[in-house]
Amino acid sequence: MTRKIIHIDMDAFYASVEQLDFPELRGKPIAVGGNKERGVVAAASYEARKYGVHSAMPSKIAASKCKDLIFVKARFDRYTEISRSIREIFLSHTDLVEPLSLDEAYLDVTQNKQGIETATDIAISIKKQIKEELGLTASAGVSVNKFLAKIASDYRKPDGLYIIKPHQVERFIEQLPIKKFFGVGKVTAEKMHKMGIFHGRDLKEKSLQTLTNYFGKAGKYYYEVSRGIDNRSVNPNRIRKSIGAENTFSESLATHDELKEKMYPIIEKVWERYQKAKAKAHTQTLKVKYDDFTQITRSKTTDNIIKDKIAFEQAIDALIDQVELEQKVRLIGCSLSNFELEEETEKTKQEQQLTLRF
């Protein structure tokens, strides 16, 4: 059976929520996160994007690109609240929902709860519900697998809808610029360009052996998606890879003691999230970003599950002691990862299959 996969991506989500809640910000270039002097942009409104402002950009650079840029403090509790409402809309159509973040998710609607015949009509319905119930816009991509649905959702942003039907897959991929391939970053794209790979048709001409030689395990992925093959299922029980938090400071930190002092509230936040998630981690990681925006990480992995907050604090303190401070630090963070998965019995699997609603 040909699968029907939808990828929903909210449009400039954090910025759009701010403009929704504060009408005076509507139609204006805004950046969520940071300020004119320090920090990093978490999201930019479409009005700001016209000036070249985008997420992950240092705030100072963003301010230089747009002199009228308005910086807004992030409100993640509010974004999470709205994300839950969006998730409920998804779940009214299918239980096969795989969240990727607060603002995007995959849906498998091959069979759906409301008996809507086409995936396109389901996507239209979801977009309409989000607009009417929440006052926000979303873009949707519809196709036969996750790879194509993800690309399609970005094709006509904002408030877009793009469908790649089964008979269109081959031609669509052949004409697609390699930099538009999901999973091909800037460095990989440059490497492919040197190999004469500029579009999907060029990638398709390369053998599996050649791609594996150049790109390792990723070579098989490139080989398959260039032929429209992506058998990954939509996983409603997607496992979180890490739990972390970080902070950018208005004044840079110069000593190890300062780093440790500022790290304690971050550790508290991470530990609270860790307990709520009921996760079982083995790896503790420290993140440090210097004033010149270079970044380092230091990690410690243990054989035993991390159960004690004091031990976690001590491990992060020890990692901080390893950090060289030839220049000041603008950001620090920490995380817990390398989670231990509980064994799932065959009985549990069968129970899940029996209770799954389509």
UniProtKB/TrEMBL annotation:
It is found in: Cytoplasm. Monomer. The lineage of its organism: Bacteria, Pseudomonadati, Bacteroidota, Cytophagia, Cytophagales. The keyword DNA damage applies. The active site is at residue 104. Poorly processive, error-prone DNA polymerase involved in untargeted mutagenesis. Copies undamaged DNA at stalled replication forks, which arise in vivo from mismatched or misaligned primer ends. These misaligned primers can be extended by PolIV. Exhibits no 3'-5' exonuclease (proofreading) activity. May be involved in translesional synthesis, in conjunction with the beta clamp from PolIII. It comes from Marivirga atlantica. GO terms for biological process: DNA repair; DNA-templated DNA replication; error-prone translesion synthesis; SOS response. Mg(2+) binds at residues 9, 103. The keyword Chaperone does not apply. The record marks 14 as: Substrate discrimination. It is an enzyme of class 2 (transferase). This is DNA polymerase IV. GO terms for molecular function: damaged DNA binding; DNA-directed DNA polymerase activity; magnesium ion binding.
